[in-house]
């Protein structure tokens, strides 16, 4: 793999002048008609490209999810194609449902052909043996843009092999979204602050008004995140700092028992067939008292059901008997498969996307947070005075400092290949569901999870990809 050395940044106009290209350089979204960039408000951050360190050519095929804030994809597609046009690369972008991304990556790696650059919204370290080491990209971003957020590093770096199996440019917080009017009725106008308050208030709302809570226990990403938040807050975890399995503990049993009560008193059977969109849809329809999610459901409600949107507020991680932590809602993992014939272009694109993280955050309507915070110095101001019409304007201020109560899916250790497989096979939400459905006792559900998790860790340990 040839190392990449990026040049100091230059403005887009200077780049065009230096390279001799004849495209019209325009900031803030226009480009003289060459690429149909979406319009932007006057205060949207400028787009600025970096000069490539080497001559680029050929095709760059990008695969990523369909963003929960559609505005981002409209901007991203135009941004990627314009960048390619400027540097001589033919860029194509394909979006698919997030639930299909891992299977698609696996299929392309098995076939040895496909996209050059692929993104998932949670760590995918299980593909480490088949992807390019992105240490150089991560280190260059650090040199240019300061320290990477710790949970991003823990979600893209394997300390056992010292390989960056992915590049993490950003992440998404996972606050609690609650209906203020409903919680005022049970004496908690500021929403629940502890898991016990969530149970007590949610049960009362369900009993009095028939409005349920939306915390999934199915085979989808939100259920994966919610289950881990509950485990950690009760003092349990899948692994310790040294990547040893510790799931079978009294604390885990207590967490599973609590979830069974939460289901019994405040939820319906729907949560066992949850998709990644289900809790969003429930909240937007006005049929959820609380969900554990990002702000995407709220953003959709602002357009689809403004009355509900005005009633939605946010709380940080709920306090449990031991801690108050949640998993990041989304953790961006960009990977470059070893079969890619255009690794150089993939790496250059990643740095250019990071360089324009302020615009990406804006186009995601503050959904995407930066993995390198220096790239978005305006974020705190935006959260405290939402440019996208929150009422009150500081409704999102609770997210300012979300890194303090957010962690990576591998907590208490890194996101390893074993953690990636446990995550992708939904063993944690399955564990909670087994007890909530009544088919297993909490002790049995935890023991069964351990019986499935230990062989996964043993397998990857034999491969030399995890410690312990």
Q: Which descriptors apply to this entry?
A:
468 residues; alpha/beta; D-Maltodextrin-Binding Protein, domain 2; 4-stranded mixed sheet; 18 helices; 41% helix; globular; disordered N terminus
Average pLDDT, rounded to a whole number, is 91
At the first level of CATH, the class of the domain at 176-329 and 413-462 is: Alpha Beta
- The CATH superfamily title of the domain at 176-329 and 413-462: Periplasmic binding protein-like II
Overall 3D form: globular
Describe this structure in words.
- This protein has 468 residues and is an alpha/beta fold.
- The protein has a domain of 204 residues: D-Maltodextrin-Binding Protein, domain 2 (3-Layer(aba) Sandwich), CATH 3.40.190.
- It has 18 helices and 15 strands.
- A four-stranded mixed sheet has the order 2-1-3-13, with helices on both faces.
- A hairpin with a 4-residue loop joins strand 4 and strand 5.
- The longest helix has 21 residues.
- The two termini are 30 Å apart.
Summarize the entry for a quick read.
This protein is of the alpha/beta class and 468 residues long. Helix content is 41%, strand content 11%.
Question: Which secondary structure elements does this structure contain, and how are they paired or packed?
Answer:
Blueprint: H1 12-19, E1 59-65, H2 70-87, E2 90-96, H3 101-111, E3 117-120, H4 135-145, H5 150-154, E4 157-158, E5 163-164, E6 170-172, E7 176-179, H6 180-184, H7 195-209, E8 212-214, H8 221-233, H9 250-266, H10 278-284, E9 288-292, H11 296-304, H12 306-311, E10 312-315, E11 326-327, E12 330-331, E13 333-335, H13 343-355, H14 357-363, E14 369-370, H15 379-384, E15 406-407, H16 417-424, H17 427-436, H18 442-462
Parallel strand pairs: 1-2, 1-3, 8-9, 11-15
Antiparallel strand pairs: 3-13, 4-5, 6-12, 6-14, 7-9, 7-10
Helix pairs in contact: 2-14, 4-13, 7-9, 8-17, 9-17, 9-18, 10-11, 16-18, 17-18
